Amino acid sequence: MPKKLRWGVLSTASIGLRKVIPAMQQSEYTTVVAIASRDLAKAKQAATAQGIPTAYGSYEELLADPNVDAIYNPLPNQLHVPWTILAAEAGKHVLCEKPLSLTVAEAKSLLAVRSRTGVKIGEAFMIRSAPQWLRLRELINQGRIGELRSVAGFFSYHNIDPANIRNQVESGGGALMDIGCYLIHSARYAFAQEPTRVVARIDRDPKMHTDRLTSALLDFPAGQAIFTCSTQLVPYQRVHFFGTRGRIEIEIPFNAPIDRPTRLFIDDGSDLFGGGITTETFPVSNQYTAQGDDFSKAVLENTEVPVPVEEGIKNMAVIDAILHSADSGQWVSIP
């Protein structure tokens, strides 16, 4: 049995309780040993439900626990950087939910903290550990679709509850921060380079003031990416990768199911009715389990985490540029 990294979880956030913690409990290299909430009763309830041995009534107590090696931070977006810094200063490695920060400057502050403390800090883009996404990288590198020239993505759900954290501006809510960040990351990952400029349009909810419909065009040295994300449309998600000789489509790219195989479609373009499509099927797995293992192995073996701070800064730079472009109506260059 390999050594396991001992994890503590900051808060009883829904994504942690529903998806990440159960998945990490199944990991080969991770074990969740503690959870904290500002409400001790909530922490105890979550600990009992998830089979976690220790519950704390404050985040500070969790960070002080010498039996915790790493922290999973699924707090609201505006608390990502402050509590990641506190965790790092307590000597804990940190896997922080996306988006890593609210601004590029805030994300950059983590570089000095990481350097000073020597811990590993990563952004929780679980797709980077998912087999269908790893296969996408292989296929592009092999030239299966020729030269990648265009990425087109769509990600939406419908939520108009003003009490929901995703609909609160002060908490970094809105479509771009919540799900648009995946579409940006997808394009950057596929092209394996950074966009040089962006142009975007945003439609904001008149009452909640969050972006409820955002579309952007990203200009890369090798091609272009387009995407639309929304918090007030029919739930849907898909990403297409277009090359000079073929196309790849990832089915349910972000909320990959854990109870059925996932699929990737490779189209050679010979038949518009789909006759040229080859389907690759991946066995039932959990991308959050893989994410936990990949991060834990990086700590245990002292290698790079899947999505380090530098990656988070680059993704945030695109988000910042999109927000500025939507305000100005102009193309915005990315430093």
- Tell me, rounded to a whole number, the average pLDDT: 96
Please report which band the strand proportion falls in: under 5%, 5-15%, 15-25%, 25-35%, 35-45% or over 45%. 25-35%
Shape: globular
Structural class: alpha/beta
End-to-end separation: 46 Å
Number of strands: 15
Pick out the low-confidence regions.
none
Could you tell me the radius of gyration in angstroms? 20 Å
Report strand order across the widest sheet.
14-13-12-11-7-10-9-8-15
Tell me the number of helical segments per DSSP (H or I, 4 or more residues long). 9
Account of the 3D structure:
This protein is an alpha/beta fold and 335 residues long. It has helices at residues 14-24, 40-50, 59-63, 80-89, 104-117, 131-141, 175-191, 287-301, 309-328, and strands spanning 5-10, 30-36, 54-56, 70-73, 93-96, 121-123, 148-158, 197-204, 211-220, 223-230, 232-243, 247-251, 262-267, 277-282, 332-333. The strands form 2 sheets. Strands 14-13-12-11-7-10-9-8-15 form a 9-stranded mixed sheet. β2 (30-36), α2 and β3 (54-56) form a beta-alpha-beta unit.
In terms of topology, how is this protein built?
Elements: E1 5-10, H1 14-24, E2 30-36, H2 40-50, E3 54-56, H3 59-63, E4 70-73, H4 80-89, E5 93-96, H5 104-117, E6 121-123, H6 131-141, E7 148-158, H7 175-191, E8 197-204, E9 211-220, E10 223-230, E11 232-243, E12 247-251, E13 262-267, E14 277-282, H8 287-301, H9 309-328, E15 332-333
Parallel strand pairs: 1-2, 1-4, 2-3, 4-5, 5-6, 7-10
Antiparallel strand pairs: 7-11, 8-9, 8-15, 9-10, 11-12, 12-13, 13-14
